[in-house]
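INFO batch 0412 | record 1 of 1 | parsing
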Amino acid sequence: MIQRIQSVFLLLAAAAGFGQFAIPYLSTTSGDPASSLPALSDQVLNPMDNPGLLGLCALSGIVSLIAIFMFRNRPLQARLGGGAAVASLLLTVLVVFVVFQIRQQMPEGGNAQYGAGLALPVAGMIFDWLAVRFIRKDETLVRSMDRLR
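INFO prediction complete | emitting tokens
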């Protein structure tokens, strides 16, 4: 259900995962020498330029989206949220590595600007972590109420 706070966090995590396809990590202009690099040939570095980035972005977004609808099975929902958080962590590491390598390969006089897409894997990881935290808190509350009956 979307009305629970953990569902909102999972929805935001999924939006962060899928938002990386629209918001680039690096961008450059068409006349810049940096656009001679294969990854920046279309003037942007996004998940479509690397199969690892593509897979991890899709995985983190899809798993977060699936976890929203597992509200009847809170332990499974928490495991899916944790898996999405791990995927976002791996995505963050891979994004930093790819951007670092692109910066190392930058030709003399090349200039590429950092994009807001660099913050999205970290945001997705934080939202997934918050969702798992609230799922576990909700599960603890339900179990304590069952003991009182």
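INFO post-check: The mean pLDDT is 89.
INFO record closed
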